[in-house]
Amino acid sequence: MTLIIFILVSALGLFPFYPAGTVYSYGKPVSIYPEGFVRTRGQNLLADGNKEAVLHPVSGVVPISLSDADGNSFCDSIRVVCTEPESVADKFKALVLCFGESTTGTVNPDPRTGSYDCGWNWATMMQNTARTHGTDVTCLGTEKCYTAHGGWSSYTYLNWPCAAKMDTGAPPHFFNSETMWYALGLKSVTGKDFSKEAWQYDLIAKTPFGRYPVDEHSCLVEFAKKVSGLYGYPVFSGSLQDWADELAENPVNEFYSLEEAKKGRHAFSLEKYIERYRTMDDHGNRLESDMADPSGRKVRGKDGKRYRIGSRIVSQALLNKVSVCSPTHVVINVGINDGDSFSSIGATADVLKSLLECFPGIPAAHFVMRWPGACYPELWAPGYIPRKYSVNGNNDRVMAIMSEVTEWSADRKDIHILDVWHCQSPVSQHKEKYSDGVLDCSLDDVHTGYHGQMDAADQVLGWLYHCLQVH
After folding, report:
1. pLDDT > 70 fraction of the chain, expressed in percent and rounded
2. What is the pLDDT of residues 410-437, one digit of tens each?
3. What is the DSSP string of 146-200?
4. Whole-number Å distance between alpha carbons of 297 and 307
5. Assign residue 372 a region: left if phi > 0, alpha if psi is -120 to 50, beta otherwise?
6. Residues 377, 369, 95, 471: what is their CA dihedral angle, to the nearest 10 degrees?
7. Which pTM does this prediction carry?
8. Distance of CA 402 to the CA centre of its chain
9. Do 211 and 203 meet the contact criterion of CB atoms below 8 Å apart?
């Protein structure tokens, strides 16, 4: 298939922009922001001549006129799918596994009130909004209704038992490119020491930890010593292979499976996740046990079936906090950290595709959140003080990766790409401050704030209602 082309030709010449996809509504208008279309460094855009374009909640295809600072213009079209809550209420039940990176795990109160009543990230906001509609939606995860790991890339979730990232800016307790190479045993496999070659990064991205014995190397020994007994790593007693084996058998990554790593294309296992963390029957009813440590206990759910409580549910507190069962839907918020990796666009896209294929027969949605900032901060005055938006190396790579993944997903019935990128408010910033009628969202932080999270929640919920109605 021909790749999606970013450079489109208008009557006025070349006009680069990042094309929109499908947006979802559950009966409320959807705002589209020009920042979502920005494709090149220094580009400033308007949508329909304004700082935002508001789409009516009616299903159909809507044209959007884009214009830049030089007066060039072009039209894109956005498909809107609207599903009213009334069409699914009292008819369907959704159990939605939600997992992702830091943009899933951030805590953002309403900046104007300081309240968390409507939720504090997209998963909690989505669940709370659904409850106001009277629809039966329960979000699942190890953190009550989501699972999140800041800084993790798609290949981390897919292949690693712990934090690992090909990024010079990653925290020191993450495996880095060099230690990843030797921990994966790739010197023995290839006969090559790590030398920062492009093919080596691609091989790192696609190799599951635990498939091959580790390589004895001084950098790996030093790393094992540094993290010994910290951040979920086992204590290092001198044997690298013993240390790696214990890490694989007791992973930080809730989805990691050593068995899958050894026999399959990757190490990700939904079944292993449920085996470790199950606290509910498959109708979403919480399992009950009077044991102080209920892990591994067989109990009968309210649906009449027998279940084994997760092996890591070792207390009554966890039994009542964690919400895990077999999901009916999956939503994945992973990808912004892939923009910082050294693997190629194609290899990184392939890893993300593999992650999205880990849920056969279950509708799965994926989205990436855009970095905050506005093309024209002055247009948001006086009510907002936003940062300036610009394409950098990270979001340039993310858009290229997502171009491949979006095209690939078009022929897959149960894999859906949500276009949060174009719907996310540019004047929303993690740790933003509200005072005297002004929202200061100019902080130098890559994470969106409350309203950006709510925009993502709206897209997820609109997609979910559409799925429930169709299915």
Report:
1. 97
2. 999 999 999 999 999 999 999 999 999 9
3. -EE-TT--HHHHHH-SS-B-S-TTS-TTSB-HHHHHHHTTHHHHHS------HHH
4. 8
5. beta
6. 90
7. 0.95
8. 12
9. no
